[in-house]
Design a protein that fits this description.
- By secondary structure, this protein is of the alpha+beta class.
- It has one domain: Lipocalin (Beta Barrel), CATH 2.40.128.
- Helix content is 35%, strand content 30%.
- An eight-stranded antiparallel β-barrel has the order 1-2-3-4-5-6-7-8.
Length: 169
């Protein structure tokens, strides 16, 4: 009887803990839901080369240009072709799912947390990076913003270009 009461007490305690966490969840946030990635416009490769030159890469450096093209293409293909991001109101968790390009039956998952910075701006924190998204009130989509401290060439090229589009309802 004592064990049964102990189990009942633990069950009630777990139930209360779960309910208290869901009370503080942010369910009315516009970012909550399932999202897909897309580009707002084509990447201007001439501007990309000019940006590389401004960063000290020589115009004749074919290998460096190729490395930047490959890194940019890898992110665009993996995000826009085969990734979805789910924002949960429960403990502000976010899940990024990406299907592998060479074998779509394998899905890689990254977990993180999202935080509302200001009205319409959100920060997504993964283990190895921070991403910022800003709500476009006209379309209802979120646009990627590069972090203020991020000097990455790829982030600069995707700034205000990669966006999240609501998937489904």
């Amino acid at each position: 009887m004592k064990k049964l009461l102990t189990l009942l007490f633990l069950f009630i305690l777990i139930l209360l803990f779960t309910c208290s966490n869901s009370i503080f969840a942010q369910t009315n946030e516009p970012i909550v839901g399932n999202w897909e990635f897309a580009l707002t416009h084509k990447i201007n490769y001439n501007a990309m080369i000019d940006t590389l030159v401004a960063r000290g890469v020589h115009r004749d450096s074919v290998y460096q240009h190729a490395a930047y093209y490959v890194s940019l293409a890898a992110i665009i293909v993996s995000r826009c072709e085969s990734s979805t991001m789910f924002f949960s109101p429960f403990e502000n968790q976010v899940m990024l799912e990406t299907k592998r390009y060479n074998d779509p039956s394998i899905t890689d998952v990254q977990w993180g947390r999202w935080v509302k910075i200001t009205d319409g701006r959100y920060m997504v924190e993964f283990k190895n990076r921070l991403e910022f998204y800003r709500l476009n009130p006209i379309t209802g989509n979120f646009v990627y913003e590069k972090a203020p401290h991020n000097l990455s060439f790829v982030s600069a090229m995707l700034d205000n270009n990669m966006m999240l589009i609501k998937k489904g309802d």
